[in-house]
Amino acid sequence: MQPALSDRSDPPPGGLDHARRDASLALAPIRLATRFLAEMQTSILCAGIAVFGGNLDRFAIFTLIMRQSVAPPGDPRAVGISINGLAQSLSYPFESMRRHVNALLAAGLCVRGPGGIAAAPDALQQPALADVILLSHDCFVRLVEDLKRFDVPMPEHRDVPYDFMTGINAAIDLMLAVADSNAQAHADWAELVLFSAILCANTKLYIHDPVLGRRYADQTAIPPRELLLPISMRRVALALSMPVSTAQRWASHLQRDGRVVRTRGGLLVSEEWLNRPQNVAISTQSYHNIGRILHRVASQGFPFEEPVRAYARGRPPSVAFA
After folding, report:
1. DSSP states along 211-259
2. What is the three-class DSSP state of 42?
3. 47, 73, 283, 322 — which has fewest CB within 10 A?
């Protein structure tokens, strides 16, 4: 029986030391959850960054603006967010944020309103953006489906109508929560994006295997080298529609402090680094964040008894690293 997903967003009482101790005692499937989160985030980013011409920052900023400015189902109010609020939320310099926002305004993707910057309603209907939005929803559903398939307990279904915007918001909230909880481990969001993409590529051989996925579900069981697929930074950059030189620059940061190691076949996420106590605590917090968000979408009608019913277009394929 897997430890239940908590609906709390913070580490257990007592801070990170208690989170580390709880992780080792409860043996929550934090590695299983981390792999599926990495797959969800990488799938969304591969599509979203391409729409924004390879500009990771601009896609991240637009995503936060959209999350803030699209009202929840049944709530007619839409709000905006200030440039200063955006800068603080994403830890960007104000002037850099202002330039990105001005570019989004000039492109007609955002508008200024009484509450600040908001996503332009017409922009959300553009085919390319609409595709990314629906993909984001279905990547969240895939995450839920996979966690349930690996026996992670789910919240009880509530018999209320489900709106697909609930799933879109949940996908964005999960990515924001992951970025927030990993802020100490990854100083820049670009580093987290590349780290997650490398992890996604490394674990392709066993992430969905019903036996191996369970065998290596927590931090006490380290996958053998033959199960890990190294990936070149060029292939990661191409999948993410990023310039190879930019990706290599960020990858050098990951290698410098041991988050990623270079092997003969390419890059691998370091299991030793993942199992440092502070990183186990981060993964444990992310696991609880999933629970918090799933409990929220349960109250909004997500069909946890049969997640496949929630797909807008169907289960998205795994990320292809050409």
Report:
1. THHHHTSSTTSPPPGGG---B-HHHHHHHTT--HHHHHHHHHHHHHTTS
2. helix
3. 322
CA–CA separation, 183 and 181 (whole Å): 6
AA letter at 56: L
Report the C-alpha gap between 310 and 162 in whole angstroms.
Answer: 8
Q: Which two tokens stand for residue 94?
A: 């104000």
Q: What is the chain's alpha carbon radius of gyration, rounded to the nearest angstrom?
A: 19
Strand, helix or coil for residue 261: strand
Task: Identify residue 297 by its one-letter amino acid code.
Answer: V
Average of per-residue pLDDT across 283-289: 94
Cβ neighbours, 10 Å, residue 54: 15
What confidence tier does 10 reach under pLDDT thresholds 50, 70, 90?
very low
Question: Under DSSP, is residue 118 helix (H, G, I), strand (E, B) or coil?
Answer: strand
Measured CA to CA, the distance from residue 150 to residue 171 in angstroms comes to 20
Dump pLDDT digits (tens) for 23-78.
444 579 999 999 999 999 999 999 999 999 999 999 999 999 998 876 555 554 55
**Statement: residue 17 has pLDDT above 80:** no
Q: Is the dihedral of CA 192, 207, 177, 172 positive or negative?
A: positive
pLDDT of residue 292: 96
In DSSP terms, 111 is beta-bridged to 118
0.85 exceeded by pTM: yes
Q: What are phi and psi of 189, to 5 degrees?
A: -60, -30
State the CB neighbour count (10 A cutoff) for residue 79. Answer: 14
Treating both helix axes as pointing N-terminal to C-terminal, what angle do 189-202 and 56-69 enclose, rounded to 10 degrees? 100
Helix (H) or strand (E) holding 268: strand 266-269
Q: Are 42 and 196 within 8 A, CB to CB?
A: yes
User: CA-to-CA distance for 140 and 168, rounded, in angstroms?
Assistant: 8
